[in-house]
Amino acid sequence: MQDVTLNNGVEMPILGFGVYQIPADDTEKAVTDALAAGYRSIDTAAAYGNEEAVGRAIRASGVPRDELFVTTKLWVQDGPAEDNTRRAFDASLSRLGLDHVDLYLIHQPYGDYYGEWRAMEGLYADGRARAIGVSNFHGDRLVDLLTHNEVVPAVNQVETHPFHGRVEDQRLMAEHGVQIESWGPFAEGRNNLFGDPTLSSVAEAHGKSVAQVVLRWLVQRGVVVIPKSVRPERIAENLDVFDFELADDEMARVAGLDAGESLFFDHRDPAMAARLGGVRVD
Predict the structure, then answer these.
(1) Which of 20, 39, 48, 110 is labelled catalytic?
(2) Fewest beta carbons less than 10 Å away: which of 16, 114, 154, 181?
(3) Which residues are within 8 A (CB) of 6 and not within 5 positions of it... i.e. 6 or more apart?
(4) Hey, is 256 helix, strand or coil?
């Protein structure tokens, strides 16, 4: 497995396993299969409702804790953000059955994320979170946050896939020492990703699947990625992307699919801010 080194020296696998939209009842088996296949990075969130299942799978796996990289995320907090952030973090640790996480992310760029960040800086200083970062932050909010706080986010997890490549966002993050991480690497199949002629042609040339080409394209760009699946054969296939390399022209062909906009929603949309900011997660 290839690692990236975060801005505080912590090493993070460049390819991990995500559990977004996997029902809690199915999560334990999926994570068990992923760990058995060789994944050592697991990404969850309080909002996913499956932290407990992730924790059960980790405990049953027999994989030493120091070989695992576990990420979870903080949802938008009401009231005094600093106090509530600490309580939310404690609740996530309890559900996971862990004494620390490797990466703790602010899930959405809404609410008092400055107060949340101050609390997270404390969790980081205490060693309860080995690294802290953000998710879904556009460049303006990311730079504003890192300019006015002591700890620079280690990671920014954002929608990144062939149809929304985030090249300029990645450049900006790199300039400030922030690691880009992709959610939705397969665009949830939108734009006929798995049948796309360009991706299919590149996949055929390497004897690989379209999914493997997409993951290889991201990894080769230095993008951390967390594909998900509940099918053991797909889970294993998604990890098998380190035995081939895309040529420069193939990288460019895939990059040429970029339309420069989200296939899901824009976090700068006032309606989306109201919608997500109004969701409560216990």
Answers:
(1) 48
(2) 114
(3) 12, 131, 154, 155, 179
(4) coil
Predicted confidence at residue 278, as pLDDT, reads: 79
> Helix, strand, or coil here: 249?
helix
Q: Is 20 a catalytic residue?
A: no
Query: What does the block give as tokens for 73?
Result: 């995320």
What CATH class has 3-276?
Answer: alpha beta
Q: Around Cβ 224, how many Cβ atoms within 10 Å?
A: 26
Phi-psi region of 49 (alpha: psi -120 to 50; beta: other; left: phi over 0): left
Question: Within 13 Å of residue 122, how many CA atoms lie on the same side as its CB?
Answer: 12
CA angle 274, 278, 282 (to 5 degrees): 155
pLDDT in tens, 151-183: 999 999 999 999 999 999 999 999 999 999 999
Tokens of 168: 């300029």
Write the burial class of residue 125 (CB in 10 Å: 0-12 exposed, 13-18 middle, 19+ buried). Answer: exposed
Cα–Cα distance for residue pair 171/37, rounded to 1 Å: 32
**Residue the block writes with tokens 């973090």:** 89
Task: Point out the residues of the chain with pLDDT beneath 50.
Answer: none
User: Percent of the chain having pLDDT more than 90?
Assistant: 90
CA distance 163 to 188: 11
How much helix, strand and coil, in percent to the nearest 5, is found in the chain? 45, 15, 40
Domain boundaries, the chain: 3-276
